[in-house]
Structure formats: structure tokens, C-alpha cells
């Protein structure tokens, strides 16, 4: 199991703990509150993820062979989802990110919010993460 | 209880409040489509065996049903399309392209903006935009000014705003356009589900219709064309079923509507649309409007009690949709939580970004009702909204 797969598995275990969907979203909202604040200098047009109804900003830093991502959103729930996505993909090697099947996030069972919908910011985020890896 | 007529509601426990996006379909609409595919599936206007004749007959009867429904003088003035977007694109490219100026309003959705951009028209360069104020009222003074300066223009205006439910006074819009020798197309995507349309009374030149927003199948629509303009209309796509005679030197076209309906149409869809119209006739607009008016008032009343709610237009002159936001809350968050509570509505810009930009918002929460909705639906919505607001604050 790759590191990314392991992380998805761990998050899935946490989410599966909630039988009640609303409680699950309360938990996601709380995760959003844990998200490290993104410095306002990064909240610029070039860091906005394309295809979002709410705004998502994403930045990438390279340290040796690894990529680190930071991001945030102006929407509360999306912020929680950003937290989850960053937890999964940040601090991964470029090689692993290049190889990663981004569809793995569907295993989280958040299909209502992480959907192949054109408007989905989370899907846009993952596309951008992949792009960073492929260009790195 | 109109919901009993719609199988969706017995199969789903969702509170469906996204009727401006698409409506649910009554039983007879669904049955008619299954019947076509199961019992007489054949192409129209080409073959002459029994099933093909039946398919053709039902398809052409659907045209007559729509003709009578909107009081069009002849059935030749009804051209089936795949929806309002295709209707607008069709008229834009086959007729309106010859006009120096196209006039739209600032409340239009993208289907009535992008086709004009594709023609190379942009604000002030072939495209004029009549402002709507922050209460979304159409500015008739500005409109007349634009018409005065640009007589002989093409006017393309929405009847009811999909994003806000605001009704434009299209009769006055059409009358004023005609005074300045302009031609008018009305985007009726949101109208037919809520109110009676009489194209002769309106004296409209083109009227775009959506089936799926009017309790019919998706992928079907129509454009009504005033008889005097039919001759000037060119097909924007051609091919099978549109021609009289073809050799390698030339083709001669059939008369309207056939020359405008190239290829095999959505036969089941068109037949289903007629069934939707027959159903609407059975219920009657009087009953529909009464039920919707009561619901809309109730919805507005109940929403008004929620803290920090922001509305964008008056309830008067509005129908179907109610659009709002809550101070310091992003509409997306509400949409996600309401979905978890089994409330289906739409959040976002509703394909009307220019008016959102004017109002300096990214989007709204939109509740759009149909006559089959109930006060109980609204109560469930309000309970869910309260819960969502609690969670987000």
C-alpha cells in the first residue's frame, strides 16, 4: 500500500465512524477549522483552483523530492475537504504523486461533494496537485 | 395532492425544490415514452409501414398540441429543437446574424449571451444590454433610448429570470420593440410551467420553449416563429428529412417546419412533451397559479423570518424561483448540508454570471417551486436551513 493509499484508508476509517451524515459533516467542518491559515499574499488569482463555485486557493512548495501543498477556501465545508485532500496528498514524493490515481478519493464515500461535477472545487484541486507533480 | 401524479415522488424521499433546473414528469409522460419504444418504435416522415405512420402521426399531433397550447396560428410555425438553448442558437445563427444590433437585458442567462459573443458581438459592438436595477426591474427608459438609437434591431429577452424568478413585462418589451421596427425573441425557458402563453396576444416574433422545464422529457424544446418571418428563416443545419430533392448540383428544401428539423428527432421526447401539455391542460393554469402563488408567499414569509437573510428582488412580479443568501455564509456550504438533509435545490450562479457580478455576489441559494410542491416541503426546507445555519455559525 502506498503512503497515499494508507492516508485515504485512515481518513476513511475516521469518516466511517459516523453513521449520521450530518454528524460526518460536522466533523468535516471541524477539520476545516484545523486547517493552517493561508497567508493572504497567496490568496491571489493565480492560486485559485479553476472550476470552483466557492473559492479554493492552492499553493505548492517543493522540498527535495517531495511536494508540500497549502490551501484554503472561503466556504466552511470546502475548507474541511481541503484539509482532507492536503492530508492525503501533501508531503508525498513527486514520483508517488505522478503515479497516484486521484480517483482514490472516491473511496472516502463523499460522493455528493467530491463528484466529477464540472463545478467541483475538490476535483479541481486534485487536478492541480497532479499538474504540479507532472511539472516538477 | 398533485404529487400522486408524478412517480418520482413515490420513489424518492427528497424534497424537490429545483424545478427551475428541471421539473418532474407526470406518469403519462413517462408511459408515452415507454410505449413508443416498446410498441411502435420507428422513424418518422420516411418509412410508410404501420408503426412508422403511427410514430409520424403522434409526432405531428404533438406539434398541433403545442400549437394550440400557445395559440399559434398554424402548426408550421412550431419547430422542434432540443431545447431553449438550441432554439436561441438556431435563431441567432440563421436569422439574427443579419442585424447590426442585438439587444438583450442584464438579467439574461448564458444561453442568451454566449451565442451573441460567438457572432463576435460584444457590449457596444453589435450587442446592447438593457440594465436591470438592483431590484432587477427592467429599465424601460434605457431600453427605449437604445431602440431609438438602434431601430431595426434584434431584441432577445428572457421572460422569467431563471436565477431570481423575476418576470419581465414582455408584452410591453415586444410592443416597444415593434414601435422601433425591431424583431423580438423571448426566451420562455421558465415561463410555460407557470403561466399561460398566448403568442398571438403577445405579438411575439420568436418564442423559445423548453419541454423538460414544463414537465416534459429532457432534450426537447421548440421555437415558435411568426408566420411572416418563416420565409426569412434559413436552416442552420441540414440533412436527412429536410429536403425535397437532391442531386450533386443542388438541393431543394421542404417547407417549414421540416426543413428546420434535420436528422432523426427526439421522437419519444416530442410525443412525451405533448402528453405533458395535455396534463397541464387537465390541471389548468388557474389551479397551478393559485397553488404556486400561495406557496411562493408562504416560502417568502417563512424565509423572511430567518436571521441575516438577503433577498435580491421583490416578491411582486416574481414567480417560481426565490433566490437568497445569508450574510457571511457561502451558498455552497448551505447546498451541501441541505443535500444531506434531503433537500434538493440549487446553489451557485445559475448560469447568469453577469447579473451576479452586478449584484457583487458569486451566487445564491435558489429555491424553485412547481405546483406539485406543498407547504410541508417548505416547512422541511426551513427546518433544514435552520439546522444548516446552526452548523455553519
Automatic annotation (TrEMBL), chain A:
Classification via Gene3D superfamilies: 3.90.1010.10
InterPro entries reported for this sequence: Fe-S_metab-assoc_dom
Entry coiled-coil feature ranges: 1-28
Domain Fe-S metabolism associated: 13-131
A Pfam family reported for this protein in Swiss-Prot or TrEMBL: SufE
The entry's keywords: Coiled coil
Residues making up the signal peptide according to the UniProt record: none
Recorded family membership: Belongs to the SufE family.
Name this protein carries in UniProt: Fe-S metabolism associated SufE
Gene behind this protein: sufE
TrEMBL record, chain B:
Pfam families the UniProt entry points to: Aminotran_5 (PF00266)
Cofactor(s) this protein cannot do without: pyridoxal 5'-phosphate
Any one Gene Ontology BP term: cysteine metabolic process
SUPFAM superfamilies for the chain: PLP-dependent transferases
Superkingdom field: Bacteria
GO MF, any single term: pyridoxal phosphate binding
Family to which the UniProt record says this protein belongs: Belongs to the class-V pyridoxal-phosphate-dependent aminotransferase family. Csd subfamily.
Keywords: Lyase, Pyridoxal phosphate, Transferase
Segments forming domain Aminotransferase class V: 15-381
InterPro entries in the cross-refs: Aminotrans_V_dom, Aminotrans_V_PyrdxlP_BS, Cys_dSase_SufS, Cysteine_dSase, PyrdxlP-dep_Trfase, PyrdxlP-dep_Trfase_major, PyrdxlP-dep_Trfase_small
Enzyme class: transferase
EC number annotated for this UniProt entry: 2.8.1.7
Species, as recorded: Halarcobacter bivalviorum
Catalytic reaction annotation: (sulfur carrier)-H + L-cysteine = (sulfur carrier)-SH + L-alanine
Protein name, UniProt field: Probable cysteine desulfurase
Function (record text): Catalyzes the removal of elemental sulfur and selenium atoms from L-cysteine, L-cystine, L-selenocysteine, and L-selenocystine to produce L-alanine.
Amino acid at each position: 500500500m502506498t503512503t497515499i493509499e494508507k492516508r485515504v484508508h485512515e481518513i476513511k476509517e475516521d469518516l466511517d465512524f459516523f453513521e449520521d451524515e450530518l454528524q460526518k459533516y460536522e466533523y468535516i467542518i471541524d477539520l476545516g477549522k484545523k486547517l493552517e491559515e493561508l497567508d493572504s499574499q497567496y490568496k491571489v488569482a493565480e492560486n485559485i483552483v479553476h472550476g470552483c463555485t466557492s473559492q479554493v486557493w492552492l499553493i505548492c512548495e517543493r522540498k527535495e523530492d517531495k511536494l508540500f501543498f497549502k490551501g484554503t477556501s472561503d466556504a466552511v465545508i470546502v475548507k474541511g475537504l481541503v484539509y482532507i485532500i492536503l492530508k492525503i496528498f501533501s508531503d508525498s514524493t513527486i514520483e508517488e504523486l505522478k503515479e497516484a490515481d486521484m480517483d482514490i478519493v472516491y473511496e472516502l464515500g463523499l460522493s455528493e461533494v467530491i463528484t466529477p461535477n464540472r463545478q467541483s472545487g475538490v476535483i479541481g484541486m486534485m487536478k492541480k496537485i497532479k499538474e504540479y507533480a507532472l511539472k516538477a | 395532492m398533485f404529487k400522486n401524479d408524478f412517480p418520482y415522488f413515490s420513489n424518492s424521499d427528497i424534497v424537490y425544490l429545483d424545478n427551475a433546473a428541471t421539473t418532474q414528469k407526470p406518469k403519462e409522460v413517462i408511459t408515452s415514452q415507454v410505449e413508443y419504444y416498446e410498441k411502435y418504435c420507428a422513424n418518422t416522415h420516411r418509412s410508410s409501414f404501420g408503426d412508422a405512420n403511427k410514430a409520424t402521426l403522434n409526432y405531428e399531433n404533438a406539434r398541433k398540441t403545442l400549437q394550440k397550447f400557445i395559440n399559434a396560428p398554424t402548426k408550421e410555425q412550431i419547430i422542434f429543437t432540443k431545447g431553449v438553448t438550441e432554439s436561441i442558437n438556431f435563431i441567432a445563427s440563421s436569422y439574427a446574424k443579419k442585424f447590426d444590433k442585438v439587444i438583450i437585458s442584464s438579467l439574461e442567462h448564458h444561453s442568451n449571451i454566449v451565442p451573441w459573443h460567438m457572432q463576435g458581438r460584444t457590449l457596444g459592438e453589435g450587442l446592447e444590454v438593457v440594465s436591470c436595477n438592483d431590484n432587477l426591474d427592467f429599465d424601460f427608459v434605457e431600453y427605449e433610448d437604445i431602440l431609438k438609437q438602434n431601430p431595426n434591431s434584434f431584441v432577445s429577452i428572457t421572460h422569467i429570470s431563471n436565477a431570481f424568478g423575476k418576470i419581465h413585462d414582455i408584452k410591453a418589451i415586444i410592443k416597444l420593440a415593434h414601435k422601433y421596427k425591431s424583431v423580438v425573441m423571448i426566451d420562455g425557458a421558465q415561463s410555460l410551467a407557470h403561466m399561460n402563453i398566448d403568442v398571438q396576444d403577445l405579438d411575439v416574433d420568436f418564442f423559445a420553449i423548453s419541454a423538460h422545464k414544463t414537465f416534459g422529457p429532457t432534450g426537447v424544446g421548440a421555437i415558435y416563429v411568426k408566420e411572416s418571418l418563416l420565409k426569412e428563416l434559413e436552416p442552420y443545419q441540414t440533412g436527412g428529412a429536410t429536403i425535397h430533392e437532391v442531386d450533386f448540383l443542388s438541393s431543394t428544401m421542404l417547407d417549414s417546419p421540416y426543413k428546420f428539423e434535420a436528422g432523426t428527432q427526439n421522437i419519444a421526447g416530442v410525443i412525451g412533451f405533448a402528453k405533458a401539455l395535455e396534463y397541464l391542460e387537465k390541471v389548468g393554469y388557474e389551479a397551478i397559479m393559485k397553488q404556486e402563488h400561495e406557496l411562493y408567499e408562504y416560502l417568502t414569509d417563512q424565509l423572511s423570518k430567518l436571521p441575516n437573510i438577503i433577498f435580491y428582488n421583490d416578491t411582486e412580479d416574481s414567480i417560481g424561483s426565490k433566490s437568497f443568501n445569508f450574510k457571511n455564509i457561502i451558498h455552497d456550504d448551505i447546498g451541501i448540508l441541505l443535500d444531506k438533509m434531503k433537500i434538493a435545490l440549487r446553489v451557485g450562479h445559475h448560469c447568469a454570471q453577469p447579473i451576479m457580478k452586478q449584484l457583487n455576489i458569486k451566487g445564491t441559494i435558489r429555491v424553485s417551486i412547481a405546483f406539485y410542491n406543498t407547504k410541508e416541503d417548505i416547512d422541511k426546507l426551513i427546518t433544514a436551513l435552520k439546522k444548516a445555519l446552526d452548523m455553519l455559525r
